[in-house]
User: Fold this.
Amino acid sequence: MAAGGPPAKFEITRTPAEWKKLLSPAQYHVLRDHGTERPFSHPYDKLYQPGMYHCAGCDLPLFSSETKYDSGTGWPSFWKPLENALGTKEDRAFLMLRVEYHCRRCGGHQGHVFEDGPKPTGLRYCNNGAALTFVARPKAPT
Assistant:
């Protein structure tokens, strides 16, 4: 997991006022202010329908439902992101070192990655539900 380095430049940039017009207050709090929603408060924590999880800020696909699992933490958790979906940086808030991850296209804060996840990666991408939108996989015709 790479972390640190100079601030990233993103493909999609907006002013705070523009983001506030596009996002709900909860989405803005998480994506732009690096906030965290309360555990067990978002319905995506217990959603296991087939589909894709996208960034709520720019609609970039970030995770497949095939890598989602119940971590018991109260936040949607994944063991692997999609290729070229995320960027990371060090987070030294709360007097500890963590790895924060964000959407690589708009820089929207998603959550933190921990090394206590399931095989095959051993990683837990602990995501805020408000930072995501879900796109269900269409059902096959019968």
